[in-house]
Design goal:
It contains 13 helices and 14 strands. It is of the alpha/beta class. The chain has two domains: 339 residues, Spore Coat Polysaccharide Biosynthesis Protein SpsA, Chain A (Alpha-Beta Complex); 37 residues. The strands form two sheets. An eight-stranded mixed sheet has the order 1-4-3-2-5-10-7-11, with helices on both faces. Strands 6-12-8-9-14-13 form a six-stranded mixed sheet. The longest helix has 22 residues.
Length: 380
């Protein structure tokens, strides 16, 4: 299912005609404003964590431009969150949430049959973007962006030499174990030559050069996109002049963001990284086959002056993770397993219908209290 320009446009038209469930919100306050930036948010099995990404976009600051948010998601599971948040994003002109049926729109045969690949989502979102947009922000569905992320991307692309804008330091949090470690690429040889977290590109380069011609549709996509763009521009590798990073504009912004593992499928290798890092204080990363220290505890990377998670991440966010309540760990793991077991829209609806409503719970609680009170009276 290789998408050239023609096939990509045909896919978009096909999506508009069939198997499409779409929600669009145009903010009436910004009708006459031009869109500068497109925040792309592809989603998959994340309807219980995508609120985290939306909450972080709601809290973006220092915005003197207008932007749009576009999400493509199997079966539109997370629609309610987009409807809830659409009016709350600062300076956001337009929100688009597209629900797709991967069986009908995805790969038709082979090992990836029935999958609508991640790379296809990135490509299609770039084509759905407003014609005036020139910055393409790649936002993960289970991450919490720092409050100045969009502002910094916009500042970076005022420099005509900027090819990629990113963040070389970040906090990784495992929602299952409630452990967190730091990722630090500042002293690595690959700081500028390779991709880093929280990336953004010139949207023209994404549209013009990125293809889905990769053997692993849903793995190593970040590196594939960068490789396509560098090949298209005729550039051998990145350096500090064209790979701009947030740390150069704001040394502390990264501290107020969060990358999570656990709600989306976490690989065994990533799980091991948390354990090894916490045990030894650091662990190695293998980028370009060269081992370098990129993972560390707060104490190991003392020079970064990071205190503790609750000093930076809002309480309402940590509370949703039950961060300070270890007794609820098992319940959280059950929720994660349930989310990952839902494969189709029909199953999702059935699962939702089988839930006891909040009002039902309240009624049961009232009855229990009354019965207990009656018991005490009779006992007297």
């Amino acid at each position: 299912m290789f998408l050239n320009k023609y096939k990509k446009n045909m896919l978009i038209k096909y999506m508009e005609q069939k198997y499409l469930d779409r929600y669009i919100y145009d903010n009436p306050n910004y009708t006459n404003e031009k869109v500068t930036m497109t925040v792309a948010l592809p989603a998959y099995k994340c309807h219980d964590i995508i609120w985290l990404a939306l909450e972080s976009l709601k809290k973006q600051i220092m915005l003197d431009f207008h932007w749009e948010l576009i999400c493509i998601e199997e079966y539109g599971y997370s629609r309610k969150y987009f409807i809830e948040y659409a009016k709350q994003f600062p300076n956001c002109k337009r929100v688009i949430h597209v629900g797709i049926d991967p069986i009908k729109l995805g790969i038709k045969s082979g090992n990836y049959k029935g999958i609508f690949p991640l790379i296809n989502k990135w490509m299609v979102i770039s084509e759905l973007a407003d014609k005036n947009s020139h910055i393409f922000v790649m936002h993960a569905s289970d991450d919490y962006s720092p409050p100045k992320r969009l502002h910094i991307h916009n500042e970076h692309f005022k420099n005509p030499k900027c090819i990629i804008s990113s963040q070389p330091i970040c906090v990784f949090y495992n929602v299952k174990t409630k452990k967190y470690i730091l990722y630090n690429a500042l002293k690595t040889k690959t700081r500028y030559t390779h991709t880093q977290p929280n990336m953004a590109y010139n949207i023209t380069n994404v549209k013009k050069f990125v293809t889905n011609k990769t053997p692993k549709f849903n793995k190593y996509i970040d590196g594939h996109i960068l490789k396509c763009i560098l090949n298209g521009l005729g550039i051998d590798k990145l350096d500090a002049t064209n790979h701009l990073q947030d740390i150069d504009l704001d040394k502390d912004n990264w501290k107020y963001g969060l990358f999570t593992d656990g709600f989306n499928t976490i690989s065994l290798s990533r799980s091991d990284i948390y354990d090894k890092t916490i045990l030894k204080g650091y662990s190695l990363g293998y980028r370009n086959k060269n081992p370098e220290i990129i993972w560390g505890t707060v104490n190991y990377f003392k020079e970064l002056e990071y205190n503790k998670l609750e000093d930076y991440i809002p309480a309402n966010v940590l509370n949703k993770f039950n961060y300070n309540d270890n007794n609820l760990k098992k319940n959280l793991e059950k929720t994660i397993q349930k989310v990952n077991s839902i494969e189709t829209f029909d199953n999702y609806v059935k699962s939702s219908n089988n839930k006891i409503s909040t009002n039902d719970c309240k009624i049961v609680l009232v009855i229990v209290v009354l019965v207990f009170a009656l018991y005490l009276c009779l006992k007297k």
